[in-house]
Amino acid sequence: MSIENYHERTSGQTILEVIIALALIILFLSGVIIVQLLSIRNVKYSQNKSTATKLAREQIERARVVRDSAGIDQLWNNCASICYINDELTPVPLSPTGIYGQSLKIETASASDCPLPNVTITPIPVSYVATAHVSWGSLVEEITPAPELSISSCITDWR
């Protein structure tokens, strides 16, 4: 075998080298696409969680407004079981339809749940825990973490 003959046979790429190079490029690009798809899913989850947090805080604030306008007893009577306070500040037993399911539950609180200040208050205020729960999306999909959020706050009849 002469040097010229050897140089001609080794000067180009073999089909096997080209296929291996293309396979590596495809593998790398597939990894990039998968990472992008996961980041899009995480952004969507974060947007939904942010909206759910806003809706849960609105329910807690609406509970405070109902307490201040109609009294704590009215709030307790309507929301001791699960309720939803609508835009007209009326507690209703149903949650609105749509992407986000919302509910509010009022429960009596213990002294450790809602500690009172170390001053003498007469009459002794009654404390309640208001828990707003928001879920979103279809529950058919198994999403980790679960598409739901709960926020609690203490509400008393003391002003």
* Overall tally of domains: 1
What is the multimeric organization of the chains shown? single chain
How large is the radius of gyration? 30 Å
Number of helical segments? 3
Mean pLDDT: 84
The total of beta strands comes to 5
How far is the N terminus from the C terminus?
A: 102 Å
Global morphology? elongated
Helix-and-strand structural type: alpha+beta
**Poorly predicted spans:** none
* Share in helix: 40-55%
Question: Biggest sheet: strands side by side, in what order?
Answer: 3-4-5
Along the chain, the helix and strand elements come as: HHHEEEEE
**Beta fraction:** 15-25%
The biggest beta sheet is recorded as:
3 strands, antiparallel
Description:
The protein has 159 residues and is α+β, with helices and mostly antiparallel strands. It has three helices and five strands. Strand 1 (84-85) and strand 2 form a beta hairpin. Helix 2 crosses helix 3. The protein is elongated. The protein starts with a helix and ends with a strand.
Key features of this structure:
3 helices, elongated, two-stranded antiparallel sheet, 45% helix, 159 residues, 3-stranded antiparallel β-sheet, 20% strand, 5 strands, alpha+beta
